[in-house]
UniProtKB/TrEMBL annotation:
Interacts transiently with the RNA polymerase catalytic core formed by RpoA, RpoB, RpoC and RpoZ (2 alpha, 1 beta, 1 beta' and 1 omega subunit) to form the RNA polymerase holoenzyme that can initiate transcription. It comes from Paractinoplanes brasiliensis. Residues 130-181 form the RNA polymerase sigma factor 70 region 4 type domain. InterPro entries: NTF2-like_dom_sf (IPR032710), RNA_pol_sigma-70-like (IPR039425), RNA_pol_sigma-70_dom (IPR014284), RNA_pol_sigma-G_actinobac (IPR014305), RNA_pol_sigma70_r2 (IPR007627), RNA_pol_sigma70_r4_t2 (IPR013249), RNA_pol_sigma_r2 (IPR013325), RNA_pol_sigma_r3/r4-like (IPR013324). This is RNA polymerase ECF family sigma subunit. Residues 204-298 form the SnoaL-like domain. Pfam families: Sigma70_r2, Sigma70_r4_2, SnoaL_2. One of its GO terms (molecular function) is DNA binding. Keywords: Sigma factor, Transcription, Transcription regulation. It comes from the Bacteria. GO terms for biological process: DNA-templated transcription initiation. Belongs to the sigma-70 factor family. ECF subfamily. Residues 10-75 form the RNA polymerase sigma-70 region domain.
Length: 325
C-alpha cells in the first residue's frame, strides 16, 4: 500500500512525463526520467522542508535528470531531418537505425491531464506534436527547458530563473533565441478539437481507403507534397507519386491491413496490423501517426517498433480472424 508521500508524489507523474517527453523526445526515456525523479524525491523528501513549492522542487529534480541524460546523447530527430527524400521505387528502405536517434510518439493519456475545455485540449495536444517535439531537440538543453517552462507550462521568468539558477535576463534572452529557432524548424500540423466533425470524416475515409487498399481514394486524401516515414528505417518519401509507388511496390505487403484508432502525440493515430504470415488474423506492423493540414493528410509517420509501442498504447498483440474479418 502506498504511503501518503508516495501518493502525493505519484500525482505529479503525468505532467512530469509530459515535461520530460518534450525535453527528451522519447516516451520511454521520459518514463525512465520520471521514475528516477520520483525515486530521488522520495529518498530526499525528509530534507525538502517545504522551502519551495513541491511542484517546483520536483521540476528541478526532473530538469537535472533530463540535463544529465542529454549530456552525452545524440540529438533525436525525424527521418526528414537526417537525409533527403528517397524514391518510392526503392527496393529496400535501408537498415534500421538505433532507437536513440529518433523522436518517437507518446500516448496523450500518459502526459496530458483530462480537461473539459476543448480549446485547452487543443493547446495541450499542440505542445506534444511530433514536429514541435522534434523542433525542441534543435535547442541546447537549458534553452529547451526555458522554452518549455515559459511557453508550454506558463511559468514566470522569475520562477524559471530560480529553477535553473539563472538570472531573469538570461532566461529572457534564452527564450528569445529559442523562439527564433522553433519558428524556423517547426512545420505545424493542424491540431483540431477532439470532436471536430471534418477530421472525423477525413479519418473515416482514410481507414476505408487504406483497409480496402483503394490507392486512388487514398491519393485524394493526401496533400501533393505529403510525406511518409517509417522509423527506425531511414527511408522517407515526399509526394503522392512516390508514396503510391512505394505502396504498390516494396511496401505492397500492407494490402489487407486493419487499423485500430488511438491518439498519439496530440494527433490521430492507428495501430496497423498486417495479414499474419500464417493467414490466421492480423499481427502488429506499425503505429501510424497522421499529420493533417487544411483538411488533408500532410504526413504519414509509421513507427515500426511495435514490440514496445503497442503495449505502451494498449493495443492488442494480435487481431484474431473473427475481429479482422
Amino acid at each position: 500500500m502506498a504511503t501518503p508521500i508516495e501518493t502525493q508524489l505519484e500525482a505529479f507523474r503525468p505532467e512530469l512525463t509530459g515535461y520530460c517527453y518534450r525535453m527528451l523526445g522519447s516516451a520511454f526515456e521520459a518514463e525512465d526520467a520520471v521514475q528516477d525523479t520520483l525515486v530521488r524525491a522520495w529518498k530526499s523528501y525528509e530534507g525538502f522542508e517545504g522551502r519551495s513549492a513541491l511542484r517546483s522542487w520536483l521540476y528541478r529534480i526532473a530538469t537535472n535528470v533530463c540535463l544529465t541524460m542529454l549530456g552525452s546523447a545524440q540529438r533525436r530527430a525525424r527521418p526528414m531531418d537526417l537525409a533527403p527524400a528517397g524514391s518510392g521505387h526503392a527496393a529496400h528502405p535501408g537498415e534500421p537505425r538505433p532507437d536513440e536517434i529518433w523522436v518517437g510518439p507518446v500516448p496523450d493519456g500518459r502526459v496530458l491531464a483530462a480537461v473539459a475545455d476543448p480549446a485547452q485540449v487543443v493547446a495541450d495536444r499542440e505542445s506534444i506534436r511530433l514536429a514541435f517535439v522534434a523542433a525542441l531537440q534543435h535547442l541546447p538543453p537549458k534553452q529547451r527547458a526555458v522554452l518549455i517552462l515559459r511557453e508550454v507550462l506558463a511559468w514566470s521568468a522569475q520562477e524559471v530563473a530560480e529553477l535553473l539558477d539563472l538570472s531573469v535576463a538570461s532566461v529572457n534572452s534564452a527564450l528569445q533565441r529559442a523562439r527564433a529557432t522553433i519558428a524556423s524548424t517547426d512545420k505545424a500540423a493542424q491540431v483540431l478539437e477532439p470532436d471536430d466533425e471534418e477530421q472525423k470524416k477525413l479519418l473515416a475515409r482514410y481507414v476505408q481507403a487504406f483497409e480496402s487498399y483503394d490507392l486512388t481514394a487514398l491519393t485524394a486524401l493526401l496533400h501533393e507534397d505529403a510525406t511518409l516515414s517509417m522509423p527506425p528505417l531511414p527511408l522517407w518519401l515526399r509526394g503522392t507519386d512516390d508514396i503510391i509507388a512505394w505502396m504498390t511496390g516494396t511496401g505492397s505487403g500492407c494490402e489487407g491491413s486493419r487499423l485500430i484508432p488511438v491518439v498519439a502525440s496530440g494527433l490521430p493515430a492507428f495501430g496497423q496490423y498486417r495479414v499474419a504470415a500464417d493467414g490466421d488474423g492480423h499481427t502488429p506492423w506499425a503505429l501510424t501517426v497522421l499529420e493533417i493540414s487544411d483538411g488533408r493528410i500532410a504526413g504519414v509517420n509509421n513507427f515500426l517498433d511495435t514490440e514496445r509501442l503497442f503495449p505502451l498504447f494498449g493495443l492488442p498483440e494480435r487481431l484474431p480472424r473473427e475481429e479482422a474479418a
